[in-house]
Each structure stands twice: as structure tokens, then as C-alpha cells.
């Protein structure tokens, strides 16, 4: 017969025995399902009008455009050169009185750049003016004598016809008249020569003024007041040959040297794209102006002139290094539609379609996509997105079209208030 002590011992829990494994597994599954339900309810609440869900975004980058369908068939390096560049000098040798230019100054055609000392030129002009005045005064004297001689010739001819004077006297009067007519013609020619000499002297005075041959920008100032300038560089090393250098910035172009083996790929009028070494992100369109019909025997190259469709841009200056891409002008049979590049993490599936969520006005807008190539960690999107739009990265399954979101760039620092 069982005693009361045995009955109490049978009611004790044996804590040393391990619990059944199936019961523990069912407990954890139940807790996981409950947690998922709670998270889903919280996310649904946030996406349906509660606190906006914080999402990471990235910008869609446009790739290509309709005008850049041509491919490069050849690349060549060269330099920016000016077709109109002149080192301006005086036509005569003289001492500089004043220089009116500085580097970087814009000048107009005919603008005065410098003046030479005009002492000698002014003296020559005064002499020519005096010679002209003397020649003109001589003309007046001869004209007065000729007037008297013509009257005498007429009177004596009439008297000789009446036999009142001898025929010899009449002929002498006529000869005197003809001689004075010849003297008058000579004096008039001398006056014309003196007038021409005065005009030449005026040109000599004007030659002491140095003017710009065309509109442009001064890139070099070569002379100072007090120095001697000469177009022939007479006088040794202390004589300047120019006042300054003027460049027409509208005539800038690129001159490249193309190897003989590749010159067959280049044609006049061929479209080009130039990138200056100083501005790597600036692509300047242009075309081939001409292929110089001469080769460099030592370097086995041919010079090619390339235009720049950026006339007057102050960023382009002579002697800049440049790289020119010669583009294939043959149109492609089917133009590729320009698209955008987005991270592959921004693309998800909804209803069997590839979609992405674009952040607009604080809401996630679903866009159906047409995908193209895979480029590393990015995907090409042919339609559905535009360059510059913000796309959601790793969109959760619970993210719905029109849900409120708070966008944060992928590389932005985390906000402590978001915890």
C-alpha cells in the first residue's frame, strides 16, 4: 500500500530531465511569426499615413543622347592655334614715346596701340609743306608774266599785220609767250611733286602711330617707352622688333598631327569632338577644316586643322593642349534609344514586371521599366526613368505605390534622430 510520502514524491517536477525538442521548436516558430506580423503591421502603418518610411535613394544617370550616336574612329593630340595672330610693329625705326596696351586687353581694328617720337617725321613734313608753298608761289609769278606776254603777242601781231612794226618783233613776243607757257607747266608740275612729297611726309608722320590690324586680344607687350623699335631689328639686341602681339580669338582652332597610317580615316568636313587638357569634362563639337597636303618626313605625320564650335569662349586660349576625336559620320541603321543608368539594387519585381520606385513630392511612385545591358553593379534602363530622378534602393516588399517616404542619399551620414 502506497504511503502519503510516495504520493507527494510522485507529484514533484523532475527539473533535471530535458524538455521535449518538438515543443521548444514550436515555441520559437510561434515567436518568429508573431514578430513578423508585428513588423508588417508597423511597416504598413508607416507606409499608409503614419511616419514616412526612411529609404535610401540614388540618382539615375543619363547615358548617351541622340546627337552623340557617332563613334570615334580616331583620336589625336594637338594644340590650339590662332589663324589670325600678329606681332605689331612700326613701319619705321624710332623711339617709343608711349605704349597704350596691356596683356589681356581687348582692342578694336585700327585702335592706337603705341606712338613713336615724331620729331624727324614732323620736320620732314614741314619741309615738304614749305616746298609746296614755294612751288605754288612760283606758279603765280609765271602766270602774271604769261598774262602780259600774251597781251604783247596779240598787240604786236596786229601791228605787224598793219606793217607798223617789224615781223621780227611780233615773232619775239610770240616766243616769249610760249616760253612762259612752258614755265607755267613746269611750275605746276613742280607744285604737284611738292604736294606728293607732302602726302608722303604725312604718311611718315602717320607711321609713327602703331595701330591694331584687326580686332582681338593683346597676349604680349614687347616694348616700353624710351626703347627703340625697328621692323628690321637694326641696332643690335637693344632694339625691339615689335610693340605687342594681337590674337583674334574668333579664329582659334586645333591643329593635330595624324599618323600617315591613319590619315585615310580623316576627311574634310568630318565631325569631331575636342577635349581640352584644362577642361576634361568639356566636349567641344567641331569639324575637320582641312588636311594639310604635306607630310612630316621625320615624324611620319600629316597636319589636320579642326574647328571649334565655341567661338569667343574665354576658356579657350592659344597653345592649349587638346585631344581630338574624329567621329564616324555614317548614321547607324537603328539608333539606340538613349537611356539612364541606375544601381541594380533599385530594380525589383512587382506582378511579374521589372519596376523601380521614384521619389516624388515625398512619395514613392512605381515605374515600369524596360531594361537594357548590365554594366557591373548597374543596369541600363531604356524607358521608364529619366536622368536626375531619385530611385529607391532595396525597396522592401511592403513598399506600395504612393507610400510616403523620407529619402536619404546612400552616401549621406546616418541621422541620430532616425533611431
Task: Report on this structure.
- The chain is of the alpha+beta class.
- The protein folds into four domains: 52-64 and 335-418, conserved putative lor/sdh protein from methanococcus maripaludis s2 fold; 72-83 and 248-327, Elongation Factor Tu (Ef-tu), domain 3 (Beta Barrel); 85-116 and 210-247, OB fold (Dihydrolipoamide Acetyltransferase, E2P); 119-206.
- It has four helices and 25 strands.
- The chain has helices spanning 4-10, 21-47, 119-161, 167-206, and strands at residues 53-59, 61-63, 72-82, 85-88, 94-99, 106-107, 112-116, 209-211, 216-221, 228-229, 239-240, 244-247, 252-259, 271-276, 279-296, 301-306, 321-327, 339-343, 348-350, 353-360, 363-368, 370-375, 378-383, 390-392, 403-409.
- It has a six-stranded mixed beta sheet. A six-stranded antiparallel β-barrel has the order 3-13-16-15-14-17. Strands 8-7-5-10-11 form a five-stranded mixed beta sheet, with no helix packed on it.
- Strand 22 and strand 23 form a beta hairpin.
- Helix 3 runs antiparallel to helix 4 (167-206).
- The longest helix has 43 residues, at 119-161.
- The protein is rod-shaped and about 200 Å long.
- The model is unreliable at 45-49 and 413-419 (pLDDT under 50).
Amino acid at each position: 500500500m502506497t504511503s502519503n510520502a510516495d504520493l507527494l514524491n510522485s507529484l514533484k517536477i523532475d527539473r533535471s530531465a530535458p524538455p521535449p525538442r518538438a515543443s521548444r521548436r514550436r515555441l520559437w516558430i510561434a515567436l518568429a511569426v508573431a514578430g513578423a506580423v508585428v513588423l508588417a503591421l508597423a511597416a504598413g502603418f508607416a507606409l499608409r499615413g503614419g511616419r514616412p518610411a526612411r529609404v535610401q535613394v540614388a540618382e539615375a544617370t543619363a547615358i548617351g543622347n541622340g546627337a552623340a550616336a557617332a563613334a570615334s574612329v580616331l583620336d589625336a593630340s594637338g594644340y590650339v592655334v590662332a589663324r589670325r595672330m600678329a606681332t605689331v610693329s612700326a613701319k619705321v625705326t624710332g623711339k617709343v614715346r608711349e605704349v597704350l596696351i596691356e596683356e589681356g586687353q581687348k582692342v578694336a581694328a585700327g585702335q592706337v596701340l603705341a606712338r613713336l617720337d615724331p620729331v624727324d617725321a614732323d620736320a620732314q613734313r614741314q619741309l615738304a609743306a614749305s616746298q609746296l608753298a614755294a612751288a605754288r608761289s612760283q606758279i603765280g609769278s609765271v602766270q602774271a608774266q604769261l598774262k602780259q606776254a600774251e597781251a604783247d603777242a596779240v598787240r604786236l601781231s596786229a601791228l605787224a599785220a598793219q606793217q607798223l612794226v617789224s615781223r621780227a618783233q611780233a615773232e619775239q613776243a610770240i616766243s616769249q609767250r610760249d616760253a612762259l607757257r612752258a614755265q607755267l607747266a613746269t611750275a605746276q608740275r613742280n607744285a604737284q611733286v611738292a604736294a606728293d612729297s607732302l602726302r608722303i611726309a604725312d604718311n611718315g608722320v602717320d607711321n609713327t602711330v602703331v595701330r591694331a590690324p584687326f580686332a582681338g586680344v593683346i597676349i604680349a607687350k614687347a616694348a616700353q617707352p624710351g626703347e627703340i623699335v625697328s621692323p628690321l631689328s637694326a641696332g643690335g639686341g637693344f632694339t625691339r622688333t615689335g610693340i605687342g602681339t594681337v590674337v583674334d580669338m574668333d579664329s582659334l582652332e586645333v591643329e593635330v598631327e595624324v599618323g600617315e597610317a591613319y590619315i585615310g580615316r580623316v576627311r574634310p568636313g568630318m565631325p569631331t569632338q575636342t577635349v581640352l587638357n584644362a577642361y576634361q569634362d568639356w566636349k567641344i563639337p567641331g569639324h575637320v577644316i582641312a588636311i594639310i597636303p604635306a607630310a612630316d618626313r621625320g615624324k611620319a605625320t600629316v597636319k589636320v586643322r579642326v574647328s571649334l564650335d565655341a567661338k569667343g569662349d574665354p576658356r579657350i586660349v592659344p597653345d592649349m593642349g587638346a585631344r581630338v576625336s574624329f567621329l564616324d559620320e555614317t548614321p547607324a541603321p537603328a539608333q539606340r534609344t538613349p537611356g539612364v543608368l541606375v544601381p541594380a539594387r533599385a530594380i525589383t519585381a512587382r506582378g511579374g514586371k521589372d519596376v523601380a520606385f521614384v521619389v516624388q513630392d515625398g512619395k514613392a511612385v512605381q515605374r515600369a521599366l524596360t531594361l537594357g545591358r548590365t554594366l557591373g553593379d548597374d543596369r541600363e534602363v531604356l524607358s521608364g526613368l529619366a536622368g536626375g530622378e531619385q530611385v529607391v534602393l532595396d525597396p522592401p516588399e511592403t513598399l506600395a505605390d504612393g507610400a510616403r517616404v523620407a529619402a536619404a542619399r546612400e552616401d549621406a551620414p546616418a541621422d541620430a534622430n532616425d533611431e
